[in-house]
Amino acid sequence: MSGVTLTQAVKKYGDLEVIHGVDLVVEHGEFCVFVGPSGCGKSTLLRMIAGLEETTGGQISIGARDVTDADPSDRGVAMVFQTYALYPHMTVEENMGFGLKMNGHPKDEITEKVGEASRILKLDEYLKRKPKALSGGQRQRVAIGRAIVRGPEVFLFDEPLSNLDAELRVDMRVEIARLHKDIGATMIYVTHDQVEAMTLADKIVVLRDGYIEQVGSPMALYSDPDNKFVAGFIGSPS
Ligand code: ADP
Ligand code: MG
């Protein structure tokens, strides 16, 4: 069981504190969405969970394990970024399997895992293509595929759909919801799109200036926001 627990998590860049003692429990299998204005600390918090940023104070646990000081590769997490830097000279298949190959996994296993991920993401027909022969949505699927093949306990998404046009964003949103249903893993998803937050989330975390303003289900935040700031983010009339 691999939920994520932050206990008084702090991040400082030099003397500048940008995350101010955040307490948060994301349950196993939960879809948790971080929202808040630009610069409020969404990416920083996600990168701290991933181990891409050092946590300056407090504790981060995944399941029962304290991972505060663990290497990113030892955390059982996989992150999907807004800019899906695929290797242009590699095929879709090679892009998805690259991480496993680097970690010395056998070829059969890589083929099997890539096959499984490509079925989930409907990329079967594109395995031999290079990224430049794919649409934006297909490229983002490959980036998600790279995360899936690693079999993480926790998926971390940092505005994965921001670079896609509106129509594709809707399609991909539906796919991410389906992926969550199929895999059942814990997912933490950063977005500034209210519709994405409302439709994907079991739990929404509203961040402001490096602290949590309110946590709740989409309905709870919509119908009972603590203040105008939260109401503004969740889009309820106030
Ligand atoms: P968000 O993802 O919500 O837009 P970030 O997590 O990127 O916000 O940034 C949170 C705060 O931390 C911002 O004030 C930003 O300027 C600051 N910050 C982010 N990265 C660094 C860094 N490497 N050095 C100094 N300050 C940073
Ligand atoms: Mg960000």
UniProtKB/TrEMBL annotation:
The protein, known as: Sn-glycerol-3-phosphate ABC transporter ATP-binding protein UgpC
All copies of domain ABC transporter, residue ranges: 4-234
The encoding gene: ugpC
Record keywords, A-Z: ATP-binding, Cell inner membrane, Cell membrane, Membrane, Nucleotide-binding, Transport
Signal peptide (UniProt feature, chain positions): none
Any one Gene Ontology molecular-function term assigned to this protein's record: ATP binding
Domain of life (superkingdom): Bacteria
Family statement: Belongs to the ABC transporter superfamily.
